[in-house]
Amino acid sequence: MSVDVRTRADPGGPVPAVDPGAFFEAQLPAAAGDAARRLAPAVRWFGLRPLVVGCDGGAWVLAAGDGPRRASRGPGAALTVRAARPSDGPPALEMTPGQLTDLVHDRATPMAWFRRGTLRAGVPIQRLLDWWVLIRAALDGTTPYVPGGRLDHEMRGAEDLRRTFRPADPADDQRAFLERTGYLHVSGVFSADEMAAVAADMDAAAPRFRPGDGRSWWAGTDDGRDRLVRMLGFDEVSPAVAALVADERLLRIGGLTGDGHSLAAYGGPAVEALVKPAAVVDGVSDLPWHKDCSFGRHSYDCCRVTAGVAVTGAGARSGQLRVLAGSHRALLWPTFVRPGTGLPAVDLPTRPGDVTVHLSCTLHMAQPPVRGERRVLYASFGLPPRDGQG
Questions:
Q1: For residue 186, what pLDDT is reported?
Q2: Going by C-beta distance under 8 Å and a sequence separation of 6 or more, which residues neighbour residue 269?
Q3: Predicted local distance difference test score (pLDDT) of residue 285
Q4: pLDDT along the chain (390 residues), means of 10
Q5: Distance between CA 22 and CA 171 in Å, rounded?
Q6: Residue 375 has what pLDDT?
Q7: For residue 77, what pLDDT is reported?
Q8: Which of 290, 278, 264 is nearest to 382 (CA)?
Q9: What is the per-residue pLDDT across 95-144, written as a single tens digit (0 to 9) for each?
Q10: Residue 170: per-residue pLDDT
Q11: In whole angstroms, what is the distance from residue 200 CA to residue 299 CA?
């Protein structure tokens, strides 16, 4: 089994522009009609109300359930599209032609627009994510997740979801677990002394970073301080981490799946040093449930492998990682967990020197610390270029 689920090769430049009329009046209805059986269970679960979408002066109504034969290519379609009427009211989602192009080519999601402050919507983001799941499934030939299916039963019936591996355990066993669940916990990969050296480098490097420098994230705590919470490209300023990222102990974990993952292929600063303080009241420190592809590009980049090296320990009160078992194998909301989702949440408490691994399609989150702070390194391993990638 491979975790390389990419279906698109990045051209390295612009993608063909999408014409709004052609998309809403022909491409999407045709794709939804062909996908009717795959979409129908999710449509029933979502219980969607119609959504009026505007783009470049036009407006269309997306509706779930049977629709006109002309729009749905036959009765029984799970998703239909028609031109909006004045009685439908103003668009609940307004997109630019560029946003529509990015959406169709899987270069952005509603979460990306929300994060960038460019989302123009009059409905909750969760409602848009339901529609996003259906559109992605129709365009990409995939099937949306619904609770109670085979994946739910497999994950809930598994007795080893909280298993902790040791470095000497067979690589085949670790690989099989990662491929099946989307995550891995390996204890005692690095020593306490090695982690102490990393922590010392974090303290020494901190004065080099400033808010707005493009190399760091900052957050405000309830004591009125601005705290440095993330240092990008940390291996470039830390001798201890520079040695760690060249260490076979880490490289072996990054390459477990045999798909050719490497730090060099990640395409950005591959190592980040995070400090997760308690009582954050402003800024981004501990992210809610999300996939690393939640802003888009799933079909170009997934699944990447991210290894989290525990510089300090972490538990329920000190910022531990949590994962949704099997979520990398499911088309569901890329951020948040929809109520009723049946996949089990698994806590991954760690000690200094442990390594956690998650795939970029695995829903995960870090619990905000309420006692002390957590320190962790994240090393991201990307897949090699696909044939035809620019």
A1: 98
A2: 232, 233, 234, 236
A3: 72
A4: 93 93 96 94 94 98 66 57 96 98 98 97 97 97 97 96 98 98 98 98 96 94 91 96 96 97 90 92 83 97 98 93 98 98 97 98 93 92 81
A5: 50
A6: 96
A7: 61
A8: 264
A9: 999 999 999 999 999 999 999 999 999 999 999 999 999 999 999 999 99
A10: 98
A11: 39
Q: What is the pLDDT of residue 65?
A: 74
Q: How far is CA 339 from CA 38, 45, 130, 323, 346, in A?
A: 21, 11, 12, 16, 17
Q: Give how far Cα 102 sits from Cα of 51, 179, 317, 322, 387, Å.
A: 19, 29, 39, 30, 22
Q: In the structure encoding, which two tokens stand for residue 235, read together?
A: 């291996």
* 213-243 CB burial, b ≥16 within 10 A, e <16: eebbbbbbbeeeeebbbbbbbbbebbebbee
> Helix, strand, or coil here: 99?
helix
Start-to-end CA distance of the chain, whole Å, equals 26
The residues near 251 (Cβ < 8 Å, ≥ 6 apart) are none
Burial class (CB in 10 A: 0-12, 13-18, 19+), 210: exposed
The per-residue DSSP string of 314-351 comes to: B-TTTT-EEEETTGGGSB--SBS--TT--SPEEEE-B-
**Beta sheet of 345-348, edge-to-edge order:** 345-348, 321-324, 364-366
Which helix (H) or strand (E) segment holds residue 243: the answer is helix 239-245
Q: How far apart are CA 336 and CA 129, in angstroms?
A: 10
The pLDDT value given to residue 74: 41
Residues 297/107, Cβ–Cβ less than 8 Å:
yes
* Cα dist from 94 to 100, 102, 120, 281, whole Å: 10, 14, 6, 31
Instruction: Please name the residues in contact with 53: beta carbons below 8 A apart, sequence gap of 6 or more.
Output: 24, 59, 60, 61, 62, 91, 92, 93, 94, 95
H and E: helices and strands count for the chain: 13, 16
The answer to whether the CB of 212 falls within 8 A of the CB of 272 is: no
Q: For the residues of 54-87, what is the DSSP string, one character each? A: EETTEEEEEEES---HHHHTSTT-SEEEEE--GG
Q: What are the structure tokens assigned to 56, written together? A: 């470049």
| Cα separations in angstroms, 74 against 66, 215, 230 | 9, 53, 52
Q: What is the token pair recorded at 194?
A: 């090695």
Which pTM was predicted? 0.93
- Under 8 Å between Cβ of 259 and 2: yes
Helix (H, G, I), strand (E, B) or coil at 42: helix
Paired strand residues for 81 = 62
